[in-house]
Amino acid sequence: MAVDAQEPPRGWVPVEHRVLGLDRRTFAPALTVLVIALALIYGLPALNAAIPWHDEVRAGDVLDLGNGATAVPPVGWHLESGTLVGREQVNPVHLQALLASGGATVELRGAAFDGTAQAFLDQVERSQGDDVPGVDGSRATLTTDAGVVGVARSTTGPGGDGLDVAFKVAVGADGPAEAAPALLVRVRTAPGQFERYRGEVAALLRSITPEAGR
Questions:
Q1: Cβ contacts of residue 116 below 8 Å, gap of 6+?
Q2: pLDDT digit string, tens, across residues 161-197
Q3: pTM of the entire predicted model
Q4: In whole angstroms, what is the distance from residue 66 CA to residue 17 CA?
Q5: What is the SS3 assignment for 10?
Q6: From residue 142, how far is each of 82, 118, 152, 153, 162 by CA, in Å?
Q7: Sign of CA dihedral 190, 194, 195, 198
């Protein structure tokens, strides 16, 4: 007499594949996912901490701003881009340098500009448009130890605190008719953190020296 075969119920697991009521065939994929998740959560930060940062600024390092212009970066910060004096030639109008420490960054950008530092900062602000939220502070004059005069403007807001300082970094580049490299120093910190870095930022700004022999 023939016996009708019945389809097993959906989700039924053969007894030979069960462990404590679970389908042991799913163990390997689940374990793989768990290992990947643990590696992402714990492995990468641990690896980051274990690998030394080779571009940490050390005492005596000097940042090359091109054509003999220089600045002294804060010791212990990370030089994420840019060139130290003695490594390679830097074009001052194409300068791109970035320093970082915790919740703060200092970006230095070079440009060719016919005009004063005040006019250069005006141009920078126009190019930003509404991209920089926050409350603008009043402008102030900043003079470096080498006598380079810059114009500074601070900002503050929910997205963080900032300071933009514009310079003409060539000797004698004070008048509107003088075509020479200009420098923008842009400082950004996490909200309420600017005071923590004020001393190091001020020392960097004061250290800016102009081009030699202009």
A1: 168, 174, 175, 176
A2: 999 999 988 644 444 444 578 999 999 999 999 999 9
A3: 0.70
A4: 71
A5: coil
A6: 23, 11, 7, 10, 16
A7: positive
